[in-house]
Design brief:
453 residues, alpha+beta, ten-stranded mixed beta sheet, 19 strands
Length: 453
């Protein structure tokens, strides 16, 4: 058993800082790099890509990143864990294998974890009386009909541990929990049992800290953002984990950003729901038990975490088509910028009503005045310019299309001193809605496949 392992965060979402993974594998010692690419809506985007081209459906950024860092990782024995496989982990693996062959890389093992995509199993599950009703609203799944675009089960750390035990250098998963990407190396290296709930919870909390990349090391920091040095060269966080469940959150020396009790605390508050019951496939973590202390510059010790047994269900992230939306903007200049923008908004709304167009929602924002704080905004003495941002949402695609034709005429038939209309008419785009559900763990099993080039 190792005395400690260092797990580095390399991505916090699909589209995150592209230089971060290279910095993590070159600027200091690490044993693992985890990269989180998936949000709830991301799976529906990948599913649509795969329907257009069966070879796609994964985060294409991941391939470029691995091409950049893999030779270094193999040299330093750094193992890569990521959920960037999306809805096509094996397709992503095959592209990386092809690149490795061209480079003459041999004995490379890539593990894939799949089985989470249950979109094609919806009818079968219904016949087995396994319901996927909305876990938050209790709305029955039948109310959506056949409009579901994606349905993916959140697996945890267990299948990743299996792939590690089979010697995989890279592990590419589908919809795995963000926390499981960090927890898995701890279970593997330290030999934790599945029922060591406090230690499993500690690894889960560490995963929650790493999952958003630079947000735990000074990015998006609310407490005192001016105190964060050199954000242009921010160092992403690293979890220095120990067999007893203690974890030190840190970053590479000489990098920008800040790791402090405050930055870590802010990340811990991110998307947790009931802090006493943070539910994952691996355990239920009690965030109220977490203790943090600054032990040195850019080193925060996390300890005392308590955990409870895992539930008998997996969460399912589902998405469906819920109409169309279109958004456009116009900029109004001083004098009376806000008054002009509000007048233009009313003129446009009147014209839409006169045309008999139907929408589920029309929303207007006056950027520079109330787009962040809405009705709580305080009117300043004067505003030099205001951007009217107006959008519509509805199930009638023709109404949404016609809205796009009504914005530009305001330029010559509305208030004066208007600019900022570019890019042509606003075009309708699909509204993808989120549907969370629960499924018994007995109804679905992860599949682990390790292949070698």
């Amino acid at each position: 058993m190792k005395e400690k392992i260092r797990i580095a965060s390399g991505q916090g979402f699909w589209g995150d800082l592209q230089t971060a993974p290279y910095d993590q594998v070159t600027k200091g010692p690490i044993d693992y790099i985890m990269m989180d690419f998936l949000a709830e809506v991301t799976m529906s985007i990948m599913q649509k890509q795969k329907k257009r081209n069966p070879e796609l459906g994964y985060a294409k950024d991941l391939v470029h990143i691995i091409e950049h860092i893999l030779p270094i990782c193999l040299q330093k024995n750094i193992r890569i864990i990521t959920n960037g496989g999306g809805v096509n982990p094996k397709g992503c693996r095959d592209v990386i294998f092809a690149w490795a062959r061209r480079r003459g890389i041999k004995n490379l093992k890539i593990g894939t974890v799949f089985g989470d995509d249950i979109l094609d199993r919806m009818d079968e599950l219904k016949r087995r009386s396994i319901r996927l009703d909305n876990m938050e609203t209790k709305q029955p799944v039948e109310s959506i009909g056949h409009k579901f675009l994606s349905a993916n089960v959140y697996f945890g750390a267990t299948p990743i541990v299996d792939a590690l035990r089979q010697g995989a250098h890279i592990i590419i998963t589908g919809r795995t929990t963000d926390t499981g990407l960090t927890l898995a190396p701890m279970i593997y290296e330290f030999g934790w049992r599945d029922d060591e709930w406090d230690r499993i919870a500690a690894g889960t909390v560490a995963g929650h800290i790493l999952e958003c990349g630079g947000q735990a090391s000074g990015g998006n920091f609310s407490a005192d953002w001016r105190s964060v040095p050199d954000l242009a060269h921010i160092g992403f966080p690293i979890a220095e984990a120990y067999p007893n469940g203690d974890v030190i959150i840190t970053k590479h020396e000489g990098t920008g950003g800040l790791v402090s009790r405050q930055t870590v605390t802010e990340q811990l508050m991110y998307e947790i729901g009931n802090p006493a019951n943070y539910i994952t496939p691996d355990c239920v973590a009690d965030f109220t038990s977490i203790q943090l202390e600054d032990i040195a510059p850019n080193r925060v010790r996390m300890f005392g975490v308590k955990g409870k047994p895992a539930t008998d269900s997996y969460k399912v992230s589902m998405s469906y088509l819920d109409g169309y939306t279109a958004i456009g903007t116009l900029t109004y200049a001083w004098p009376d910028a806000l008054e002009k923008a509000k007048a233009a908004d009313q003129i446009l709304r009147t014209r839409l009503a006169d045309l008999g167009l139907t929408f589920d929602e029309i929303r207007s924002e006056f950027m520079g005045y109330n787009s962040c704080h809405g009705p709580l905004s305080v009117m300043p003495d004067e505003i030099n310019e205001v951007v009217l941002r107006i959008g519509v949402r509805g199930h009638d695609q023709k109404s949404v299309e016609r809205f796009g034709m009504e914005l530009a005429p305001l330029i010559l038939t509305g208030p004066p001193a208007v600019t900022g209309f570019a890019g042509g008419r606003p075009k309708p785009s699909e509204v993808i809605a989120y549907w969370p559900a629960l499924i018994p763990k007995t109804a679905v099993q992860p599949i682990v496949e390790v292949a070698e080039v």
